Amino acid sequence: TTNKDYYIISGANLSLINTTNKKIDAFLSFDGEIKGAAREGDTLFIIEKRSGKQWQMITINTQARSVKKDTLVWPLESDLIKDIRYYENSLYVAEKFSGQIIKYKIGQFDKPLIWISSKSQSKIKNPISVAIDGSLYLLEEEGSDIIELRGGEITRTIPLPPGILPDYITTSVDLANLY
Q1: Residue from 93, 74, 76 nearest 132 by CA
Q2: pLDDT tens across 29-48, in order?
C-alpha cells in the first residue's frame, strides 16, 4: 500500500484501489500465471510464469507507479510457490514439493541460488510459510514444527504445542518473537 492506495491481484490482473476517490482501476494485466508476490516498502515483487519455461519478475514501484519486467530463471522442475519473503536485498521463494528455498538477489533474477543444502533439504517436507529475521524459519504443511535455518543449514527445530496448526508465520528484525 502507499498513501491510501491498495493493490490487489485477481486472476490475471493487478488492480489499484484508491480509498480516497473510491475508484478501482486496472493497473496491469498478466499474460501468464501469477505464482507469488512479496512487498518491501514501496516495492511489489510479482513472479509470473509465462508459457513453457519462461518466467519473469515484475517489480512495481508503488510511489512512482512504474513497472519493470526482468527475465527470471526458475531452477526447479516443480513450481508450487507457497511463500515469498524479502530480506536484505534478496527474495526468498519457498517451493512446496521440492522443500527448497530459492534465493534471488534483487536485480539478478537470472541467477537463482538453491539456498538449502542437500543435507538439510532431505529433512524438509512441504514448506508453506517463511519468516526471516536473520535466521530463516520454515513452517511445514503438517504444522507440527518450525524449522530454523542459517546459511542453508538447519540450526534447530521448534516444536509447536499440540493442537496448534498455523498456516502462516511472520517475524522481522524489529520483532522479538516469531508469530
Answers
A1: 93
A2: 998 989 999 999 899 999 99
